[in-house]
Amino acid sequence: KQEVTQIPAALSVPEGENLVLNCSFTDSAIYNLQWFRQDPGKGLTSLLLIQSSQREQTSGRLNASLDKSSGRSTLYIAASQPGDSATYLCAVRGGSYIPTFGRGTSLIVHP
Amino acid sequence: SAVISQKPSRDICQRGTSLTIQCQVDSQVTMMFWYRQQPGQSLTLIATANQGSEATYESGFVIDKFPISRPNLTFSTLTVSNMSPEDSSIYLCSVDPVSSTDTQYFGPGTRLTVL
Asked: CB neighbours (10 Å) of residue A28?
């Protein structure tokens, strides 16, 4: 059974810092890995989707990498802003095609 | 892409009552998923709703407690029956991507509080 772990569980940083959020998974036989953002009391917004054959994806200040063999993904946020404050979730889609979610990293960026 | 709406956005209910949550998608999709997110927790899949067949429930979830309807390819409902305070959660509708290269889409969620 796939298990997804996200570290750290919570992070509080001053504005402008570069951040790395980590996601690890136990079964490397995956189709893709997706990073989401969730604002308090809201649904999920997709940030980046990495296919199993890809190593990384970039969107603006966000960069996600995937190392399938080691079961790891990182989400890099450059020059963090208060508007980046949210919970970031990692989801891994495997053979059953049903995604498995991590518990998320709660990020606060203070001015 | 797919745009998903959910109704209601939030509700406060009394113990023992039932609530039906609606999920509407702006395009036809094969599979729709219902998730639960309890306070401080990640998403847990309740069931997969397929048009024209019974929903497939994950371990720990049963049809009597969470009946699901899927009358067509753009709409689904989830009912939370005989509610207790432990059912207080955010309930999220999600749709299967068009292909494995597409992103998974989520509705805005329904925040349920059971007193």
From this structure: 15
Across the interface, do B103 and A89 touch by the CB < 8 Å criterion? Answer: no
Three-state secondary-structure class, residue A49: strand
Beta strands of chain A (E only): which ranges? Answer: 4-7, 10-14, 19-25, 30-38, 44-51, 56-59, 62-67, 72-77, 86-94, 99-101, 105-110
Determine the Cα–Cα distance for residues B52 and B70; give it in Å rounded to an integer. 7
Taking only the tens place, the pLDDT of each residue in A53-89 is 999 999 999 999 999 999 999 999 999 999 999 999 9
Integer-rounded Cα radius of gyration of chain A: 13
For residue B4, the model assigns a pLDDT of 93
pLDDT at residue B100 greater than cutoff 60: no
Distance from C-alpha of A61 to C-alpha of A83, rounded to nearest angstrom = 12
For B53, residues 6+ apart whose C-beta sits below 8 A from its C-beta are none
Q: Provide, rounded to the nearest whole percent, the portion of chain B with pLDDT above 90.
A: 74
Report CA dihedral (B91, B47, A1, A26) to the nearest 10 degrees: -40
- In A22-41, the residues whose Cβ lies within 8 Å of chain B are 31-32, 34, 36, 41
Whole-number Å distance between alpha carbons of A38 and A106? 9
